[in-house]
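dumping the sequnces here before i forget
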Amino acid sequence: VPGETNEGATHAAAAADRPSRRRSAVVAAAVVLAAIGGGSLGARGVATDLATARDLHGGRYVGSGACAPCHPDHTASWRRTFHRTMTQDASDARAVLGAFDGRALEYGGITARMIRDGERHVIEIDGVQHVVDRTVGSRRDQQYLERRDDGTWWRLPVAWDVEEERFFHMNAAFLTPDPAALDARRVERADFDRHVARWNDNCVFCHNVAADPGLGAGGARFETEVAELGVACEACHGPGSEHVARNRDPIRRYWLHAGEAPDPTIVSPARLDPSRSADVCGRCHGQRITDDVGAFLAHGDPFVPGDDLALYSSPLWHDTPLGDREGAFAARFWADGTPRLTAYEYQGLLQSRCASEASLTCTDCHSMHDGDPRGQLRPARTGDAMCAGACHTELASEAAARAHARHDDVRCVDCHMPRIVYGIRGVHRSHRIDVPSALENARAGRTDACSLCHLESTAGDGDPAWADALAGDPIERAVVLAAIGRDEAPGRRDARLGLLVSAMRDDPYPALRHIAWRALRSVASDRALAPSLFTSTDPAPDRARAIDVITALLAEPVSPPDPALAAELRARAAEIAIEIGE
Amino acid sequence: MTALERSRRGCRRFGWLTLAAWATFGLVLESLHGLKLAEYLDDPLARELLVLAHAHGVGLALVVLAFGEAGAPLFSEAGDGGTSLVLRAGALTIPLAFGLSAIDHPEGDPNALIWMVPVGAILVIAALARTALAALRS
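..and the predicted 3d for all of it:
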């Protein structure tokens, strides 16, 4: 029967095929066992490796380009930040924000002209060309560095205001008064170059990764090197060469993916204890001083993320001496020791009970990889969620928060982190988180949170708070002038405009005149006044003319303070120059 | 039905079925591109893995079809000693491992299912090696 024959043949063939299938199964089992054995050995090696602590000092820096292939999301989120663009090579046309289109900036009779020479950006001052080699900053302003033949970079005296889209003279960024000959348009070149500063031993430390000024013996020459321009991955995570090399091993990577174990070849600030985590930020956001400046200038800052910052340097405080100079830094602090300049946020945090009693650290509110690059607040911690969502849960409900504040429309930070800190041409929030007390603050000579809104109320000296716009020292004036411009400041609009106009005309500090102008534009935001209508570094007659134009455009009452009162208040103003960080 | 016929039938069924499935998957990927779906476009690694799944799925389906028509006859009537099964197992494992490893993957790496790709690759290579030997012996 044909069918029977076929079936028989099939069975015979199947029987003949069985040993072959068995061989296949044995080979497959051997392959699987070999893979499992190899994997186990590899895993044991990885476990030992991960349990071995590392000293990252002396590690080689590899640059953010080496991080990107494995950390594309973190790289992308970092690339959005202003940290990345803190220092850039000007040969990259995208780096230069300023309009080098031939426009000029005159200051005290000296003219700077910003031009292009082929691909190069040039600032021409008194006929001498200064080629922009690097840029510093990109958020509020951008400063420009020139490279000289001796290997040093120098900050040029003209910078770009990013928001206002115009150049400004650097004298308008620092808290020093006008030079004597400004109104006569005969400013000395030394005054024009007052804030021309050497990059190699100043800005280099905080605006780059692993800066080594390389100052030679006897201070002869700088051989400055940085691992990467700008604030990049390894500024916060430490040198990454071993991390990159070790994690080429896929078993190691997947071991780390699967578990919670930290990788000892790199620093994750999120895994550090709060103090060490704050040290990573405090290294730059808290001005410091070291006992061995020579070593820093010769070899750079030995700090590596994860270190105790105090091993190498100490934060500047109100009473920190500079050599035998007592009180050298006192003007940078309110009388109660609260910092009143930016780049002292670390000191503010250390002074806060939130940090000393509740382990608050920078990354509780800020994130380097999330949120709006302006401020880099964690998205989940914006608004009052920053406080009430984290520790002060008893204030989470709106009713409880209102009852606590006794105000309907204030945020936690308005009272506990008031805007009493001067930064370049702006006023910012204090990072000393504390309880506002008008009397205590007045006794300590510190503008308090309440007065920033209640400008009409009298402070400890019996004057209304707004009087400090004329009578205070430069930072008190800056703080109050900025407060006058904010919406929460009540009071007659004509009086607020009048105070601001008065400061724009008569304050001897160009930085404060600029803050007053910004505040005026804010008060009169319905008028859309162009920033270029007023230049704070212009001579007094020019400023007066500009103010006439502005008041005409305002077309509303502007009521400056009584001249006699204004003169009396100005006579009480403390005209001190406040060094910032140079 | 002989072992050879069973092997060829299995290869045809597997090959055409998976070819249709992975080709359709390719159409889905093109649609995601066309519709500019952010979840797809914003994750380059996942996108690469899904494309690899599509490409390997289609390519290996063709290999299985080719094996059924031109590879299986190289073995004796007694059968191919499991070569067809090993090939199909590999041809299924590789694209699935690529595709599934795109789901909820850690930053910079596919998820752990990617480890199944080399397993599948060993299966495919073993099957191809056995077929090559059979071709040399024939």
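The longest strand of chain A covers residues 128-136.
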